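User: Sequence in, structure out. Go.
Assistant: Echoing your sequence, followed by the C-alpha cells.
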Amino acid sequence: MRPLRVLALAGDAVRRGRIHGEAHAAAIREYADERIALAANGAWAGRPATPEDVLAIARSMLPAHEAYDADLYAEMRAMAEAAGISPEAALVAGGFTDLVDTVRSAGGPQPEEDDCTAVLVPASRTGGLGGLFAQTWDMHDSATPHVVLLDVRPPQGPAALVFSTVGCLGQIGVNELGITVGINNLVCTDGRVGVTWNFVVRRALAATTFEGAVEAVRSAALAGGHDYLVMDASGRGINFECTARVRVEEELGEAPIVHTNHCVHERTRRREAKRDAGLLASSHQRLLTAQRELEHGTINLARLQSLMAEPTCICRHGEPPGHIETSGAIVVRPETRELWATWGPPDCNPWQRFVCGGA
C-alpha cells in the first residue's frame, strides 16, 4: 500500500515550474523519456515513428498551446527548463495520448490503447450529497510510479486539487469553487496540430463559472480525441465526446452518465480509429458494468469507491501485452470541494481525502 504524494504549488512557484529538488527533476526527465518512446512505438500510435518524429510533431504544436493559454504555456516552459528537458518533450509527457493521435493520423494498423472509466452522477441520485464525479485513470503501467496530486494555488484565480503525473500540467481535478473536470481517452483518426488535453483540463479548472469551464472545452482546437466530463458545485454536468475535429455534447439529466474509451455517438464514431477487438470489448464491458452497478438506488461515496475498485474489468493491474493499469482513481463531491484519491489500483491502495483550498 502506498499513499498519494502531494506537491504544493503556491504563488509564483506555479509559474517557476513544479520542481522540488533534483529527484523530482530526474523523475520528470524519466517520465518524459518513457512517453516519447511509447509515442514512437507502433503498438501505441498505430504506425512506427522515431523519437525525433514525435518531438518534431510536438514542437509544431507549441504555438497552438501558447495561443490557447499563454499562462499555462509559460508554466509548462518553466517546468521544462527546471527539469532540463525541452518544451516539446514536456508537451509529450503531458499530452501523450493526443500526440499519439497526431502520429496515428498518417495511418497505420490497430493501436494498443485503452484507458479510464468515468461517471457523472446527478444530485437526485445521491441522497443529499449533491452531484458526484468518479473515475479511474488507466495508462501503461510505467506511469503509475509518477502519479502525484497537485495542490495548485496560483497568484490569481481559484486554487485547485489536480490528479496528475510529474511533468504534466494536470489530468483530473476540482477547484475551490467546485468546478470539476475529468477525462477519458478516445482513439481517433483526425489528430492534428492543436491543443493537448491536459491544457484543456487546467484551463477549465481555472474557470470561476460552469460556463467558463464549458467554454474551455468548446474553444479548444483539439489535437486528439478525448471525452471531457464537467460538473459544478450545484450539480450541473455536461459530457463532451470529442475527436480532434468533432464534438458531441450531452447534458446530465436524471440518470448517471458513464463513459469509457469508445465513442457512443454516430458523429464521433465516424472519426474513431479501428481498434484491437479485445480492447474494444474491454471498453464496452466497463461501460456496461458501470451502468448496471449504478442503475438503481442511492449512489453515495462508498458506492463509487467500490465501483472504481470493481475487480472484473474496471480496476486493472498491468499485465502483458498491453501493460494497462489503473494508475489511480478519483471520487469528487463538488458541493463541498472534497476529493478522494488513490495512488495506483484502488483495490489495494488507501483512499485519501483532500479538501480544495483547505489548510
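User: And one key feature?
Assistant: The longest strand covers residues 324-333.
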